[in-house]
Amino acid sequence: MRPFAYSRPTDANSAVQALSAAASANSPVADAAIQALAGGTTLLDLMKLDVMRPSALVDINPLSDVWSAVNLDGGNLKLGALARMSDVAAHADIQKNYPVVADALKLAASPQIRNMASLGGNVLQRTRCTYFRDVSYENCNKRNPGSGCAAMDGFNRTHAVLGTSGQCIATYPGDFAQALIALNATVEIIGKSSARTVSFAELHRAPGNSPQIETTLMPGELISSFSIQGRWPRSTYFKVRDRQSYEFALSSAAIALEVQDGTIRDARIALGGVATVPWRARKAEGLLKGEKFDDALASQVAEAAFEDAVGSKHNAFKIALGKRVVARALHQAAAMEI
Amino acid sequence: MTDPEDRALTWSFNRRAFIGGAAGTVALPLVAKAAGDANTAAVAADLSLPVDVTLQINGATRPLNIDIRTTLLDALREHAGLTGSKKGCDHGQCGACTVMVDGRRVLSCLTLALTVQDQPITTIEGLSQGDQLHPMQQAFIDQDAFQCGYCTPGQIISAIACVKEGHATTDGDIREFMSGNICRCAAYPNIVAAVKQAAPAVSDEQKG
Lengths: 338, 208
What we know:
heterodimer; A: alpha+beta; Enolase-like, domain 1; five-stranded antiparallel sheet; four-stranded antiparallel sheet; 12 strands; about 30% helix; globular; B: alpha+beta; Ubiquitin-like (UB roll); DNA polymerase, domain 1; 2 domains; five-stranded mixed sheet; about 35% helix; about 10% strand
């Protein structure tokens, strides 16, 4: 690990000032020289691997007093960015009214990591692409823009089949983000001079021609909270992985349904483990609205969700697997007793 | 509880702790003190200089002079002479380094030591009352819940937390909530048995 300067501001304003100190508008936030430290479970791991090389860390944990609040007032949900995964997963009202949120958090990582990792850090975790994580591979467009992609011709079993580009096929690894996508969450962001609220779906950027730019966060900006409108008791997260626990998704689906008298009024589907960003399957969702749920419809929706999928040498199985995951998650959500 | 003063004394008579501790103290006069208190917004001017950090480990106050990059795991093992917590992967994938910080199980390999200065830390060395093993330690012996033993300190800390979190009610629950601790010898069935054996005593301890 390279040496770094360390600071521990006690209020948000000082934290943002510290993060903005040497921020260059042109450098991607993920590669910024000054990084915010929350749970540290991604950052310290990647610093040890020399993948991330910040010259300064701003420890934002003292902001937890204010930024870890969970608020369910008025029938909506607001989650502070420094709330820890385990605390939110264990929250009884979230389990009841937003099971997709509680499930996605509970099925992620390990109890120790969930005790440490913040929600804000969780959504910003970096890909688990082995070539990205191993600096002995020079050709990684994410780490060294323009250097090529070792995964394209490499062992790409865990890589993405949706949202890929000729530059990058790295999978977005998280689970919680899919719940936020499915629930149309917004994210509150504070910067040096102002605060803004954006749709969570606009936070992550597909790789395109610049896979090194992973989010639309501006240098010096911090996520302060996430908001979800309404309650979503008929929602679920289903995750398939190489082992039963403590593993990233090969394929997962976050589903939220609103059903009235047997007819689906609203449907949201987000896919994990298969795409370069938290993936909203909008076309597939559309097939559910106004319909009555049955097995044939589930299969049709699953097909639509992977219509545009493109496999690589080792990961084409994810397309077949992903369809089954969507169908099963839909069955799971439809069968929930509310 | 044992008097913290007693614990601070007893650790130095442990062979491995003595070697580690002695090595640590020799280095002290040789290094310059870094500027600034890490709890303020101040930043050490020269990043190569060690900083003063005070940890609360197993009820004892331990002032350390460490490189700013030092993880809690390395601070425990290399500077505080407490080698019970183990370094397996050093990347948050195996759980061998699990300790309690402020009553929560965390990975000490992904925690910077200077970020947890004001929080009580409990390691495997802090569990027994003198010669009286903690019920979870005793259960691991009774149930033969380890072979090589390398993952065991992390398993035991994690197991105590698993019970206190209320996740030791069924075998399935124990397996799920102990999944952050990998055992290369695959002693898993016996680990589940040990957690079940100690669960009532650990729950009582919490209530008491």
